[in-house]
Structure formats: structure tokens, C-alpha cells
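A favour between colleagues. Tell me how you read the following sequence-structure pair.

===
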Amino acid sequence: MSDQAPPDGFTLHARPSPLTTPWMPFYKRVNPRSVHLGVWLAQKHCNSRGLVHGGFIAALSDNTMGYTCGQAMKADGRPISGLVTISLNVDYLGSAKLGQWMSWEPELLKAGGSIAFVQALVKADGETVARANASFKIMK
């Protein structure tokens, strides 16, 4: 676990799931229409070659885009009971190193009556290393 403080505006994220618990701690920055996640990269986020694992990037992309969808819909006064991922795509554009700050910067593109579309940039120390997009089924 890193003893480094997160960047300004980030606080400890206290909503782990069985999948993400081994990768904790995560940090979050909640805005009126988005929820950004961030983490100091450690060995537990890597594959056997010592590179940050693509599955880790994909899983946290799915999380942050889902949280963002819910946050934006709540801001719009649209009650929902949950979201289910329909599709998730990640384009890997670069690599990240241990010790870097990795952050997810999501944006809701459109929330229709039953499906929402979200995208996110994944950055390591400010450099884009992946781009993700997803669609979610809106549960009512």
C-alpha cells in the first residue's frame, strides 16, 4: 500500500466489491456528473511480466463509468435501481509503471430511456494510456 496522499480532490473510496478488494486502496473524486477513480500503481495491479494488467484497467474502467452514469442520472433527477454492463471496450494506447498515479476520467455521453453510453480516458501521471467506452442497461 502506498503511503502517498492522493492528488487534491480525491478521497478514499470505500465501496469495494469482491473483485476490487485485493486492489485497494482506491480513491475517488466525485463531481456533480461524474465519479473519477484513482490509484497508486503497485505490484498487485501487475501481470507476471511486471506490467499493469489490462484486466485491471478494464475492471476499473467499468467501475468508474458505471458510477459516473449513476451520478449523472441522479443529478438529472432520474431515479434508477442499478446499471448492468452491456458492452465494454478498451483501447490500450500506452503503458504505466509501478508507483505512478493512475486515474480514470469518465464522461456520460447519453442516457436514453433504457441504455446509457459512457466513455473514459485512463491516465498514468497525466499521460493517456487507455481509452474505454461502455454501454449500460438502465434498471428501473
